[in-house]
Amino acid sequence: MDDFYRDFILDHYRNPRNFGHLPAPDAVAEDRNPLCGDEMRVEIEVDDAGNVADIRFSGKGCAISQASASMLVESAKGKSLESLIALGEASVLENVGIDISPTRMKCAMLGLSVLKSAALAGLAKAGSE
Amino acid sequence: MNRGASATVTPDLNVRADFPILKERTSRGKPLIYLDSAATSQKPQAVIDAIARYYSEYNANIHRGVYEIAARATDAFEEARAKVARFLNAAEPAEIVWTRNATEAINLVAWSWGGANLHAGDIILLTQLEHHSNLVPWQLLAERTGAHLRYIPVDDRGEPILDDLDTLLQGCALVALTHVSNTLGTILPVAEIVARAHSTGAIVLVDGAQAAPHLAVDVRALDADFYALSAHKMLGPTGIGVLYGKRRLLEAMPPFLSGGDMIRSVSYERSTFNELPWKFEAGTSNIADAIAFGTAIDYLEAYGMENVRAHERALLAYAFERLAPLEARGLAIYGPHDVERSSGVVSMNFADIHAHDLASILDTEGVCIRAGHHCTMPLMARLDLAATARASFYIYNDRRDVDALVAGLEKAATIFRIS
Ligand SMILES: Cc1ncc(COP(=O)(O)O)c(C=O)c1O
User: Fold this and answer.
1) Residue A97 — very low, low, confident or very high, per pLDDT cuts 50/70/90?
2) Based on the domain organization, do B277 and B185 belong to the same domain?
3) pLDDT at residue B227 in the model
4) Which chain A residues have a beta carbon less than 8 Å from that of B356?
5) pTM of the predicted structure, to 2 decimals
6) What are the residues whose beta carbons fall under 8 Å from the beta carbon of A92, sequence distance 6 or more?
7) How many domains would you assign to chain A?
8) Which domain holds residue B136?
9) What pLDDT, in 10s, does the model give residues A46-63?
10) What is d(CA A112, CA A89) in angstroms, rounded to the nearest whole number?
11) Does the beta carbon of B103 sit less than 6 angstroms from any atom of ligand 1?
12) Residue B93 above 70 pLDDT?
């Protein structure tokens, strides 16, 4: 677990990419990890083709949850909402490049679950329009 | 450990040998440095043996069998109750009701006493320090009855502010407060609060989950009406806890859970209930763990509660001293930060390292601490904290454990490049 905290992880933790808010997001989701109180919010702007035009995340939490979310959100730009919904835990683990202890998996997967909820919300909205 | 002469016990290294788990190593081969006793304590061999002995020598249901081992089990079970009564200085064993844990003890009072005595508009007064276990049951009771909650505020160090207590007590039917804060270690002036609450006619429940393991508790000196505790935080097994209540109050209360054991006689139409304390003990009790809790109490009494407190105070002073240099590097310590006013708890954050990351890094060194909100989410919001890392001590900890904690924090500083 101590090898988890490598430079690029700490960099994403201290300088999260795409951190903040969008002026007019099409889809928003938020969740918290009740165990540790970590909070996360994802906002997506969807283009006409149903792809991610822009994306932001916000919240607070540990290095694992923040860095995992930062890397995941960065890679989500330009992707279709459908492809985001199909993402599995492997996508997060590939980003961080190292095993995460079972007790910390919830932290690592918080960003993924909120991103998928936001993508679902985006699809639902597109379907109803 | 020298069981006989508690006044002369030098409570440092010797008791460690009584706790088999402390000989274990982690999967990385590190010795186990257990600093999470506020969550649950470790168990001495004597307690583990007491459970095995009950099951292997005299396992039988209590209060009904006429044969020898049933009598032996009943005696041991009731003897454990008497030990708890003596330990807390209750007037009589009948004032000791077995529950599963402190949470269930509090719920018993909320449902039974609360249901019968609280009315719309009554005030339930809590403190801002409360564990969810001494908060949520009162929120639900307030919803059921139309009562309202009020809180005794705490300052930024987590110490209760009693300036407006008399105003807060107006219209108050019940005060429910913790004796020691699990998150910050704050020791509350319970006797003073009880006296002031009684002068306005309020009943007082004390959540002793974090006090009974660490301080000499005298429920009559405190004049507490109810006192709740969990055995697992005081060297005993999980699954057994205690509600102390004054006889006068317990007698007037309706049953909580109902069924076998708690009745005197039952017909198809109605039932009459058993006397105290069995009126509140429906169904087969947790016999083995109650008996083993009695053994834990024997152990604590042999050690001496004054010695527990002295040992923890010395360890806390040592921890504050060792941690002080790290404060210049961004270590923040919460709570009273004063050994006279805290139990053996250090709640902290280190620079911009999240408490969970700190706990994970310490875990790689075999150091077990707790990270999070410690079941006190409103308190964390009050102190504007998302989470803290909490190290908590007990009789089996020593200076080496504090040294390991400090070394782990140094390691975290290196990993997170904190200069
Ligand atoms: C102050 C306080 N009250 C109540 C409880 C609840 O104890 P249990 O979970 O054993 O019922 C705890 C346990 O963490 C506690 O620290």
Assistant:
1) confident
2) yes
3) 98
4) 36, 38, 61-62, 64, 104, 107
5) 0.93
6) A68, A71, A72, A108, A109, A111, A112
7) 1
8) 48-302
9) 999 999 999 999 998 999
10) 8
11) yes
12) yes
